Structures are given as C-alpha cells and as structure tokens.
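To assess whether ligand presence alters the predicted conformation, the chain was also submitted together with magnesium ion. Input:
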Amino acid sequence: MNYDLTIIVPVYNEEDNMPALEERLGKFLPTCKCSACVLFVDDGSKDKSLPLIKDICARNKDFYYISFAQNRGLSAAMKAGIDHATSPYVGYIDADLQTAPEDFNLLVDYIKDYPLVMGIRANRKDTGFKKLQSKIANGFRRMMTHDGVQDTGCPLKIMHTDYAKRVPFFTGMHRFLPALILLQDGGKVKQVPVRHFPRTAGVSKYHLWNRLVAPFMDCFAYRWMKKRYINYTIADQNLK
Ligand code: UDP
Ligand code: MG
C-alpha cells in the first residue's frame, strides 16, 4: 500500500453502476497524475453491490474495499474511508459517476498548496427541482458558515489525509467538509470547475427532507463548533 492518493467510493445499493465503475476507474488509475488506488466503502448494501465489489477487487490490482455491517449513511462511509487511508491524499467520488474520474487530474494540480481541492459542478445535469434544493441549501449554508464555497456537495474532492482525519465527524458532515477543513490552522479550499453528468443507473438516496431539513439544523451546530474548535501548536516535546 504505497500510493499518493486513495480514491474513496461510497457505495449503497449501486449494483447497476459497478461495471462502469470498474471500467472508468480502471482506465483512469494509470493516467492519474499521482499514484492512486480505489477504496470502495460498501455502506451495508442490500443488493449485489458487495459481491460485485469483491469480484472487481479480485481481478484488478489497486482496488480495495471495506464493507459495513449495516447502512450508516454517506458521512459514515466517507469517515471509514478516511480512517483506513494511509496515503498522503484522499479523494472522493460518488458511485453514480455523475462526475468524471478523469477530472481528478484537474484537482491534483492544486493539491500541494491546498488541504482541500474540490469541484464545482459546471452545467449541472440534475432536475430543476434538485438544483433548486441545492441552491437554497448552498446559499443558507454559505450565509451561516462563511465558507465561500459554491458547491459543497460536489462529489469530486481531494484532501490532505492529515486534515481529513482531524475533521469532526457526525452524520451530515459530508455537507460541511469545506467549512470543517477551514476551521483548522492552515485550512484553505480551492474550487475548480468540473464536468457533470446525469445519473444513468441506480437511484438517488437523498430527497427533500434529508437534503434540506437536517442540514439546516447542522448549520447551527457548525456555528457552535466554530466557536469551540480546538487548534494548538506544539512548542516543544521530548516524545520519540
Ligand atoms: N450513499 C452511501 N450511503 C447512503 C446513501 C448514499 O454510501 O446511505 C452513497 C451512494 O451510493 C452514492 C453517494 O453516497 O455513491 C451519493 O448518493 P446519491 O447519489 O444517492 O445522492 P445524491 O447525489 O442524489 O445527493
Ligand atoms: Mg448522486
């Protein structure tokens, strides 16, 4: 396990997306600007996703997986991926491939200088209703967190693993990643336009309620956390 980048792919009931994931990620890895591997995190899928993931990992090098005993949600899947990553950088892409693995290379260009480099979905290919929900959520969250981020939910991100491991995790955290990275000393976020595609297989797991209401409450939790967040610098030590 000696990679620069671990690409985390959260998977919950995505059996119809597994063939495309194998092909697209398999093609991308050798062209990635840094040495990269894929880490599937099966979030307790009830369809055939897990056996398909195991097959993919058995016939391809640089593909790994962990699987949950029960469904725990996207934030938990991302946390597990980050907890298990040993490379200096971690990436994240959704299993529905609404963003292109090839566009990781656009993010890699900035990763030395920014603890988080993330996409902005240009020409977003979602329904008008979903885009409206996203616009409201992004606007309110930006007002509450001052993170200055245009598209928090963009499923194409690369982070410094040490910063990612220090993020306070909670259900819904995945919507606050940039704001949570910014809490840390040296936290900076670079946003880069990336391509976006319609979901062509499987179904979306999020809807109006879990996209708007809980995240609305989380904004207040973030404000509290921002006031209380602990940063420290070690001045001296004799540990070895
Ligand atoms: N996902 C997950 N656990 C869940 C719900 C979703 O790991 O409980 C994964 C899902 O398989 C996908 C990503 O999180 O890779 C984003 O989910 P989805 O595409 O359904 O959300 P949307 O893009 O519609 O907000
Ligand atoms: Mg999606």
